Amino acid sequence: MKLEEEIKQQQFRDPFYKAVLNIRVTESWLSTRMNQMLKPFGISQEQYNVLRILKGQFPKPSSLLLITERMVNRMSNATRLVEKLRQGGYVTRKECPGNRRKVDILITEKGLELLEQIKPEVEATMDKMKNLNQEEADLLNTLLDKFRG
Amino acid sequence: MKLEEEIKQQQFRDPFYKAVLNIRVTESWLSTRMNQMLKPFGISQEQYNVLRILKGQFPKPSSLLLITERMVNRMSNATRLVEKLRQGGYVTRKECPGNRRKVDILITEKGLELLEQIKPEVEATMDKMKNLNQEEADLLNTLLDKFRG
DNA sequence: TAAAATTAATTGTACAAACATATATATTAT
DNA sequence: ATAATATATATGTTTGTACAATTAATTTTA
Fold this sequence. Notes:
2 copies of one chain form a homodimer. The first copy, chain A, is mainly alpha-helical and 149 residues long.
């Protein structure tokens, strides 16, 4: 759907400013769908992302710093996201033996099972949204990387 | 900067899922810079956007519904964003004479002046971020429109 | 080795996002 | 004209974002 219809605006100061709005609108469109899909599982998009980071390191534990570096939104608060996941039983936290400033965070069996349950739902959601072929997706990635300089 | 470095992840399940992450990372990158720029003016990116919508309608008043339809993030709360702007003296609210359910929202002189003050700062921020030429921006817009189906 | 600087995480605060639900007014159907 | 439905906005709640400031542990350097 064209941006013009999406936000009922016909004129943009230039194609670049239009792209700025388009990125924001598309992100919002995307997050709405991802969060809808995750809702039955009781976790948010950010919490899902943190679980995937932890699975990527598993069975090695991760520090909050490692998680922050890999998070989509650098400004959100890893401490509090992890605490929510801990309350759900999806991760454990313990003091790092070698460095008492650090916290070793580990995904639990329950956390890994949750990711397995979510997997087919993510695949289905992705398939439903997949309006770009591989070449177009590659091109979009190139342009977004270039957008950030 | 490549997404791989941005979130320290080397593998992605496919180019489409990579694009999903890339859109979210780019939006976050963008919003951080826009909000930084707006900070000295004491308004957020969404409040700025609402002011621009109101200016687009000026001197006609806008309803909350009209604002919601034009907002970048449909899920955020127009009532509360407008209330913040009213507290700052940038907009007025009054009951719509023809339909008492509606609220007529109008940008004030102070609101229009704020937009004028912000304008050169936005231009400067855009120039600093402008890593795409016009053809690339057009192509990015086409791909994002197609992404949303 | 004590002081200074750095690192890692936590806590506090204000605001925004993402809903669900409620309230008031207007429109329509009976 | 009354009841049912739809429309427009407001309110409540939980979580996330965007910082700044604090605390505690470690490393550096004087």
